[in-house]
Amino acid sequence: MSVTTATDHAETRSDRFERGLEVLTRIDGEAGRKVVDSLADISPELGHQVVAWAFGDIYDRPGLAPRDRQLVTLGMLTALGGCEPQLDVHINAALNVGLTCEEIVEALLHSAVYCGMPKALNATFVAKKVFSERGLLPGKK
Amino acid sequence: MSVTTATDHAETRSDRFERGLEVLTRIDGEAGRKVVDSLADISPELGHQVVAWAFGDIYDRPGLAPRDRQLVTLGMLTALGGCEPQLDVHINAALNVGLTCEEIVEALLHSAVYCGMPKALNATFVAKKVFSERGLLPGKK
Amino acid sequence: MSVTTATDHAETRSDRFERGLEVLTRIDGEAGRKVVDSLADISPELGHQVVAWAFGDIYDRPGLAPRDRQLVTLGMLTALGGCEPQLDVHINAALNVGLTCEEIVEALLHSAVYCGMPKALNATFVAKKVFSERGLLPGKK
Amino acid sequence: MSVTTATDHAETRSDRFERGLEVLTRIDGEAGRKVVDSLADISPELGHQVVAWAFGDIYDRPGLAPRDRQLVTLGMLTALGGCEPQLDVHINAALNVGLTCEEIVEALLHSAVYCGMPKALNATFVAKKVFSERGLLPGKK
Amino acid sequence: MSVTTATDHAETRSDRFERGLEVLTRIDGEAGRKVVDSLADISPELGHQVVAWAFGDIYDRPGLAPRDRQLVTLGMLTALGGCEPQLDVHINAALNVGLTCEEIVEALLHSAVYCGMPKALNATFVAKKVFSERGLLPGKK
Amino acid sequence: MSVTTATDHAETRSDRFERGLEVLTRIDGEAGRKVVDSLADISPELGHQVVAWAFGDIYDRPGLAPRDRQLVTLGMLTALGGCEPQLDVHINAALNVGLTCEEIVEALLHSAVYCGMPKALNATFVAKKVFSERGLLPGKK
């Protein structure tokens, strides 16, 4: 059992955090940082792991484009249920990495086939909130 | 409340089924047809709805590319849990519409962040089975 | 693979929508229409599918009485979790199609055996809200 | 906080078990007893609670007919996912208390709207197995 | 099939309720009683079962310490999703039976591995609320 | 936003893997290594993350004893559903870190209150398999 990679250089915990924070900020913008900040007084280690592991180690890997990762993520958060706060962050992230409003809405329509109407509706109403906050809702001129 | 589209022409139930069957066969190949065939003696109506609605009405819509739909679908099926038979069909479908083995494996690694390790592992072992059946597993020369 | 039914006549998209809207209004009353209306600016297609497919194609089939469909639906929404907005609509619908308050409360008690106490409690508190709004709560004279 | 009922007589643990066993046997037949028997060497207390509480205390309450309880139960087990062994027992139970094959298949078709196609398919294939074992599958003459 | 225990004495429904209420009050304090009280006008039987069965029959069994039961319960409520009200009650209960803030936060960090980041985050923010209400949050001097 | 710890020394990817492998082997024994080995040809990176992150970074933290982590884990895996392979590994792990058969069975009985009977049954039958394989089942002399 061996795992070899080209990048087996030594990193400190802070290095990994800094690397992840750059990714988090690029993808999620202020919303992602706010979640991590709000963990500072209750579980700084969970905040560290979101940044250093989820964004630094996993999200930033080259094997799947950020846009594609967000499509997978929208599918997962819709299917899990009860993850409206994370859908809010990740619908924003989806827009940040280049998915269009139309693609996001279509992905959530597609989710009705696999997750059922209730979860598709819950996710779509989060998209409505996010698009509205960003001035992207066609009906809200 | 009104919904207008360019394609508001009359279709019979059979028309919609035929349209969906063409999509299903294109995306899922024989595996999809086998699922529908195996419903014939227990719930032909469920088979009809999978074909006519899921594939004919939803999947074939132009707003999201088949490759992108499969990324969302892999995320959903991994998150739902207990959907290994559907993951089998849809990992095959993902390959059929142009996702690479590397992208699929990376999407399932990405799912560990949002769904946890157990569901990511379960989905990855379905990918191992599918890739092996298609002769795509690097270790199985 | 063939599916034949007695009703294989041609319908337009609008025909199916109108047919479904009649069912939706009969079952869910204003609450159902409000959900569809609130989708108009974000995902009119999801609104169309809720109406034309969920209510027009599936709900209205003769093989299971509306009252029985609502019992299945209450079970599903309780088990899924995080579907309180849909439970609100469907507890109202359950009353509209003839289930009594006592039967609904008993169904949710029954759900504790299969879904556990937390989900049974969450669903029961939605019933409390709905009954209260309709003046049906015994303790709210 | 007080709860009063007409039946506040003293019962031993064995009384409650015997009462539940009569209900379990009436509803689930041998399949239910087999589940309880298979718990005897690992968790007799879980077996006791299934019998005495789930069937003796809850299932047997008069507020909802057995047929209606099974409709709620089919909805819950389909929605939960991964409960195929329990669906097997409860599709048998549904037939035992008077639901027809057609109503069960229709309930599972209805579940596709709320739980999505994968869970509806998984439950329908359990129904196919059960109907086949009982010689009720139309295509299996 | 027989289940024998040392305590097979006769109890009335009220006896079981009283026994459970003592346990509920000891573990959950006022929060638990409030939940049961709020069920009085909608489903007194569900309130009875929470008290008499969940706390009287199961929680009070000697085979697992209250502290250990709360660890299992925190894991379950985090994994189920959408059970924030119950997490609130049970994070309070965890503190009441001797788990420290640090152990609770660590258990929720641990949950990220198995349930994914979104559910770990949702549960951790409930802990933040509970600790804050009890004056236990380090950052809230 | 800063996270400081006493152990901010530099580690390579291999260092973290080796550290995690020691923990994984101590807790899960051969079963854990087998899971990682079986990932080698499909997703070595997922294997790396299970070892280096889940076991090296999270499991080994001092804030919660291994025995307590396993209680949380049993609760989560039971609640998630469809995670029988992981329950197998972690019921073995629970025994390895000092939980008794009686405590494990009691924890799974306790889970019936929060997850419902079906998931409690599924998990208990995995325990039966594991105990039987280890010669720990009382009825299997």
Automatic annotation (TrEMBL), chains A, B, C, D, E, F:
InterPro entries tied to this protein: 4CMD/NDH-1_regulator, AhpD-like, CMD-like
Domain of life: Bacteria
A UniProt-annotated Pfam family: CMD
Record-linked Gene3D superfamilies: AhpD-like (1.20.1290.10)
Molecular function (Gene Ontology), one example: peroxiredoxin activity
The Carboxymuconolactone decarboxylase-like domain, residue ranges: 44-128
Listed name of the protein: Carboxymuconolactone decarboxylase family protein
